[in-house]
Amino acid sequence: MTENEANSHEKNSHQEKNEKRLFVLDTNVLIHDPSALFRFSEHDLFLPMVVLEELDNNKKGHTEVARSARQASRFLDDLTSGSTPEEIKEGLDLNLRVGIDEDSEEALIATGKLFLQTENISTDIKIDLPGQKNDNFILGITLALQADPDLPKVSLVSKDINLRIKASAIGIQVEDYNNDQVLDDVNLLYSGIQNLPSSFWDLNEKEVDSWSEEGHTYHKISGDEVKKWLPNQFITIGENSDFEAIVRENSKEGAIVEQVRHFYSEKQSVWGISARNKEQNFALNLLMDPEVDFVSLVGQAGTGKTLLALAAGLTQVMDEKTYQEIIMTRATISVGEDIGFLPGTEEEKMAPWMGALMDNLEVLTHNDDAGEWGKQATNDLLASRIKIRSLNFMRGRTFLNRYIILDEAQNLTSKQMKTLITRAGPGTKIICLGNIAQIDTPYLTETTSGLTFVVDRFRKWEHSGHVTLRRGERSRLADFAADVL
Fold this sequence. Notes:
Helices cover 34% and strands 19% of the residues. It is an alpha/beta fold. It has a six-stranded mixed β-sheet. Helix 9 (278-287) packs parallel to helix 10, helix 10 (305-319) crosses helix 12 and helix 14 packs across helix 15. It is elongated, with a radius of gyration of 27 Å.
């Protein structure tokens, strides 16, 4: 390829990338993100009438789906308010309307147009195509729009995998809605740990200053590599080195790191729990640090997330009196078929979902010498300081001096995560636990999960910390099953 041909190819690719397009939106896109109407920049949008009907069918109730359907309907009502039928047929200017992103509370301004289906569109697609009738209507309308030579390139946007497969099968350009994707690849997720080579000290020998202060050992390290370190990020050097430190400050003059506390021995244990690996030790350092208000722990089953969080919480509630009580909650997403209505109070309804809490409490309160009365007294005492709450009733509340554990956080959306974290009042600490490889919520993936969202957004804040736990400590059976199944 000659230089002129290369330049021409690059120019054509650039023009194709920036070419104005027409996107047909499926209903699930607006239910997943009502502000999607304002997230397509300069491109135009088309809404089939069946999408409005499905929004109307889903707007009743108190579920997250109903709330999103109502919000999308309000946006559409605002866009069409005061417009004549002729103006709607010609397209509504999105740049004259402003949408509000609930996550950042910033205005979302689009410069394209919104077209609503105002007349019957005849299509060549057979409505008896296998599948849902509404989906087939959307496919037929998209095909008809693609056949119009006066329109720009037409694409269908849907969160429904099967609809995307059907669209591809009949020659429709189709895409997933990825605006809420936090990362391109889950492997890029911040781990909270920086592993340095064994030669690091030799390379930085003249750029390290060390001192001790109130029983803590600090090192000031300068150089190009340390500029990338983040607050409360953990530093290890070499595979067999005992050096474990946490970044306390980072400026142009260099980074100040503090050697972490070691919770490996029984004397330094937390509520009887000792760290079995470096990641668990790092997690305990964050959980026991009063200056860290938000902690996120990600790892597969058996890495000790819930046990470590609960042990640190009991120590700070029962012994150190840092917090008044522990509040534990989780998303009530079933792995199998739903078992139906659960009777009782809020805590009694949540009890079946809190098996992890009960299992870990058995470990933390196990004492063969206490006797039955002693065990019961201990359980009653702990039960008075551990409250189980449902996420359904979090909106509008404020928690003061509480230690909040959010389990199975990977099943929450970014909006649900914001709703919970903004409940924290003065003196409250929030712990988010989860395994992003086990997501049970429809339309959520590893890169769009609320847990991934908060890990990425909080990583630069000086009062937050994150650790990815990689080594299972549950049992040899669980470790083997996690590897081969």
